[in-house]
Specification:
It is built from 3 helices and 19 strands. The protein is α+β, with helices and mostly antiparallel strands and 209 residues long. A hairpin with a 5-residue loop joins strand 6 and strand 7. The protein starts with a helix and ends with a strand.
Length: 209
């Protein structure tokens, strides 16, 4: 339900990513996060998104003078990249780190294939998440279902067949099935909560049709 929480917020399409396009988008998000504490963003994307980001940063850096890890233009603008072009610091103190999400590359989940890359179009989706704090609470948090002290974040139980869960000898007492062994079951009921979805957003690779 994370993408559903971001619907109607910041959404843009791109064909070829540029640093200017990226900077403008991040500036808009930073303005929406003006009340944030410990401000930091994460960018989650697939293989195509990583390639687009790397290419955009290298193109921007080509016109800048490298001073240590800083790229400075003749007009005095300053950008900083690190970790093999996997982190970014731009205007208004905007900082984000790029993280790979393999689900965006799963062709069994995303069947629309980009003929230019042979990857799913979803591989180019870029999801920007504001990982800052607001009034001491994390903007993005994992919530588990539960009430009256019952924790449903991870419930674990076993059904015994011929073997007990502890691995002891089978007794003559009643068992739950005729399986020669025992079964373990797990149940997890949780979800992601976003306090300020307006400071998050998506950039999606434009379809070529």
């Amino acid at each position: 339900g994370l993408l559903q929480q971001l619907e109607g917020t910041n959404y843009r399409e791109y064909s070829t990513l540029t640093e200017d396009f990226l900077r403008d988008f991040m500036t808009d998000l930073q303005i929406q996060a003006k009340d944030a504490e410990n401000s930091h963003f994460m960018l989650f994307t697939g293989a195509e998104g990583l390639k687009q980001f790397d290419s955009a940063i290298k193109s921007a850096a080509a016109s800048y003078q490298l001073i240590d890890t800083h790229f400075t233009s003749k007009h005095g603008s300053d950008l900083k990249f690190g970790n093999n072009y996997r982190s970014y610091k731009g205007l208004l103190g905007t900082t984000f780190t790029v993280a790979y999400n393999p689900l965006f590359d799963d062709a069994s989940l995303h069947t629309e294939i980009d003929p230019e890359t042979n990857l799913p179009y979803e591989s180019g989706r870029m999801v920007f998440m504001d990982m800052s704090d607001y009034e001491g609470e994390a903007n993005v948090s994992l919530c588990a279902k539960g009430a009256d002290g019952v924790d449903r974040s991870m419930v674990h139980w076993c059904t015994e067949g011929s073997t007990t869960y502890q691995g002891g000898e089978a007794s003559k007492r009643m068992r739950s099935n005729d399986f020669d062994g025992f079964e373990c079951h797990y149940l997890s009921e949780n979800a992601l909560k976003v306090i300020n979805p307006l400071s998050c957003g998506q950039m999606v690779k434009r379809r070529n049709y």
